[in-house]
Design brief:
The chain is an alpha+beta fold and 142 residues long. 26% of the residues lie in helices and 44% in strands. Strands 1-7-6-5-4-3-2 form a 7-stranded antiparallel sheet, covered by helices on one side. A hairpin with a 2-residue loop joins strand 6 and strand 7. The chain is globular. The mean pLDDT is 93.
Length: 142
Amino acid sequence: MAEVTAESRIEASAAKVWSQLTDWGAYGEWSMTHTSFPKGGPQTLEVGATYEENMKMMGFPAEVTWTVEELEAERVLAIRGKGPMGVVVGTRYTLVPDGGATTVRIDGEFTGAAVSLMAGKLKDSATAALNESLRKLAGLVA
């Protein structure tokens, strides 16, 4: 298993950050791992909703089928996906209002046999991608 975390204080309200975070058409403007939603983002954002995403991890393309596991508008979005080679990916976005700003935390988890072979590189690559994604997200909502 490989676990990664990134956190940033963004100078925007939780509502504004959430709106950008769930704007599927603009996802590629800030997410460093996203390449496309072949069928669009989830039709309705609710627990149990599924959608497909094409991603790039460590320079390699990956197709992930996501399921929304937890949802609290403007606070929490947790998704779990099945990727190539039996890898399971979990991502949790947590937004905490802080005055006129919002602390955004992204937790990621990768499990599966293939992960153990590349856990160190995966952690480094994913952490860098999450930090850059938060930087870009902040730039879009500030």
